[in-house]
Amino acid sequence: MSTDEPNASQDAAAIDGRIGRRPTIYDIAQRVGLNPSTVSRALNKPGRTNAATEEKIRAAAAELGYRVNPMARALPTGLSGTYAIVLPDITNPVHFELIRGAEQVARRSGFTLIVSETEGAAEIELETIETLQPSVDGLLVVASRLDDDSLAALAASKPIVGANHSTPSLPSVTPDLESGLTDALDHLRDLGHRSVAYLGLGGAWINRARWELTLDLAAARGLGVVEITVDEPTVAGGAESLRRVRASGVTAVLAYNDLVAHGLLRAARSSGLQLPEAFSVIGFDDIFSAELAVPALTTLRSPLREIGTRAMETLIDPERSRTPTKVVLPLELVVRESTAAPTR
Amino acid sequence: MSTDEPNASQDAAAIDGRIGRRPTIYDIAQRVGLNPSTVSRALNKPGRTNAATEEKIRAAAAELGYRVNPMARALPTGLSGTYAIVLPDITNPVHFELIRGAEQVARRSGFTLIVSETEGAAEIELETIETLQPSVDGLLVVASRLDDDSLAALAASKPIVGANHSTPSLPSVTPDLESGLTDALDHLRDLGHRSVAYLGLGGAWINRARWELTLDLAAARGLGVVEITVDEPTVAGGAESLRRVRASGVTAVLAYNDLVAHGLLRAARSSGLQLPEAFSVIGFDDIFSAELAVPALTTLRSPLREIGTRAMETLIDPERSRTPTKVVLPLELVVRESTAAPTR
DNA sequence: CTGTTAGCGCTTTCAT
DNA sequence: ATGAAAGCGCTAACAG
């Protein structure tokens, strides 16, 4: 592209001889014969400037195709207009709706969202947050692996809101595990099951919480319960657990998430097992493929999208983002085909 | 939080009396008795400063917990160290691996990634790109709905790379539709099919390209082919197409993507049809749930992750990002259970 | 090798 | 209501 042949379509960008340079408030000021500070006011503090002037300035800005430079604005104000969401694994379908919810709230409010993965490692999570902090106005941390002290220290410099994870010092939005698990266990008990396996993931906070709760709740119902640990919260992880599930002799399993449940279903099918006759399985989250599974997955539907929107709303609210309020959202048991009365 | 009660753990942040303020290179400079510019050099231009000095500066920086402020750096350099990926729909599983590929390359190179949705609307896409442009060093645009002129104009100000979409003025990374569709059609023909339906999406560039190609390729093989349009590239869209697929009398269908194929499979199952006996279906992309479907989906596997990494690599390379080179990646036909010989 | 200086684009007192 | 001037944190000549 030649730099000395401006044409009509590039006109807006052809300022003081240089093509491609973005117009600044100085260009607008010069064009309308006013001071840059007046331009700044006209564009950002409605009413604090003469109506006619403001109109003229807006017109000039439009003609030039002016866009504020967020970086330049961030320096004096300390506010960048961008937030970050940091999560263990982008490709986990559980996070899609959550990200989308957060992104929509951010965009509707004129903010930009940075997405960053931690691969489920605490050190990477810490490093990521520290790196991102100077350039954002706050962080949404999903399923954090960090302890409360670290999180509290980090939150001292920029607000942090937790999602799918709760810790004393931070505001957080989480699903209501207790009522959800109660429903799931009641469902199983009503079907006639006597012993269930909890297929969990080592490490994650939310997993510990679920297991403890499951233990209590199952005991209260006279249900036997064992914990079986999977290495990763994935389809492969679930598939690998089949042997242990069968060995345990349970008639029902509560999976850490739908991915794990999918893996278990699939492994069972391919080893010729008939489900739900051989054993029932309940997933967690209700990701889009849950109803695609065969048998269609009974699962605890997590309000993923809403967790994302609520968490982001909390984050962008200066008041709420500094108050460690816990928002707990209901979980819904979606009964499909993967649960039935035990055959033994 | 009280501002006049510094404690040990906040020591690093307790600079010139104010708690919570992030240390700057001025703080480091003062601490080691050097000039800020020397600090800047020591931290960013390895070798251009005395080894001992550099060591001292790094030590001080570490003690203070210094992190560069990307906003402040962006102003003089014009480089923000962040890139944006803009795509129609975050929750489409097709984009997960693509985003992840892009994110990993960005992070490995020390860059930050902004993710933004356009809801598949050209106006939103345009607005999004224009808004993001001042704060990024380049954009990765996935499955763009904009025409070449608009894209070319936008790319004049900051580099843009296309993914899953090809347009004359931009570098792009796309799957090799021709060889992929050839394989798919050959597979169907070899199975004995004589007429196929192409289940497409109105509007998207990549859809037009696929349909035209399918038309040519099918004709060359003596296969009859009809186009059936779905409203959205989703499970629901696919399900709704069942009536028209049956009415068309074809024995095989090529779906726009796996989501649409899933919907079709599911609708067929629930109306009592036996697949692949009633008709065969081939998906596109090979998203994680393709092998979870029943029957497991035969599909053209798109190298999503690699498209993401290659596109991002192109984008962060100053040379390549300005050269409209087209990278075409192979598609692989993954034969599973949803295709078989026709029964009529 | 290190210090000085100016400036990136914008906001924000403080004057006028 | 508008202008002048300083400064956000950092980099980049240019001197020394």
List keywords for this structure.
13 helices; 3 domains; homodimer; 17% strand; DNA-binding; 6-stranded parallel sheet; alpha/beta; 6-stranded mixed sheet; Rossmann fold; 434 Repressor (Amino-terminal Domain); 344 residues; disordered N terminus; elongated
Global morphology of chain A:
elongated
- The strand line-up of the biggest sheet of chain A is 2-1-3-4-5-11
Strand content of chain A: 15-25%
Distance between the termini of chain A: 76 Å
- For the record, the CATH architecture of the largest domain in chain A stands as 3-Layer(aba) Sandwich
Mean pLDDT of chain A: 90
The topology string of helices and strands of chain A comes to HHHHEHEHEHEEHEHEHHEHEEHEE
Q: Supply Rg of chain A.
A: 27 Å
Helical fraction of chain A equals: 40-55%
- Regarding quaternary structure, what we see is homodimer
Low-confidence stretches of chain A: 1-19
Per CATH, the superfamily of the largest domain in chain A is Response regulator
CATH fold-level label of the largest domain in chain A: Rossmann fold
